[in-house]
Amino acid sequence: MTVDIIIGLAAEAIKVTLLLSAPMLIVGLVIGLIISIFQAVTQIQEMTLTFVPKIVAVMLALVVALPWMINLIVTYTQELFQTIPMYIR
């Protein structure tokens, strides 16, 4: 196993990790931005107003993106297991 193979595996793992976390992070960011704009306009500074909608939105994003996420991680795992004989040489 060479350094190039290890770097390739690490890069692919990081790419898959970023793709898996992106839907929830983007939804949380957008909802947080919308809520902060709403708070700035109305001057309401309630702390629970920021957390509850974000949690609900991230959970909904998880439910919506879950089939795609499962497909992505299963494909990655299958490709990784299929290439194990090449890495052992």
| Spans of at least 5 consecutive residues with low confidence | none
What is the number of domains? 1
Overall radius of gyration: 19 Å
Strand content: under 5%
Assign a percent range to the helix content.
Answer: over 70%
Order of helices and strands: HHH
- Count of runs of 4 or more consecutive helical residues: 3
Structural class call reads mainly alpha
For the termini, the CA-CA separation is 7 Å
Describe the main β-sheet briefly.
Answer: none
How does the overall form come out from the CA principal axes? Answer: elongated
Report the count of strand segments: 0
Kindly report the oligomeric state of this protein.
single chain
> What number is the mean pLDDT?
92
What does this protein structure show overall?
This protein is mostly helical. The protein has one domain. It is 90% helix and 0% strand. The protein has three helices and no strands. The chain has helices at 3-42, 48-82, 84-88. Helix 1 runs antiparallel to helix 2. The longest helix has 40 residues, at 3-42. The termini are close together.
How are the SSEs ordered, and which strands pair?
Layout: H1 3-42, H2 48-82, H3 84-88
Helix pairs in contact: 1-2
Task: Spell out the key features of this protein.
89 residues, mainly alpha, 3 helices, elongated
Quick recap:
This protein has helices spanning 3-42, 48-82, 84-88.
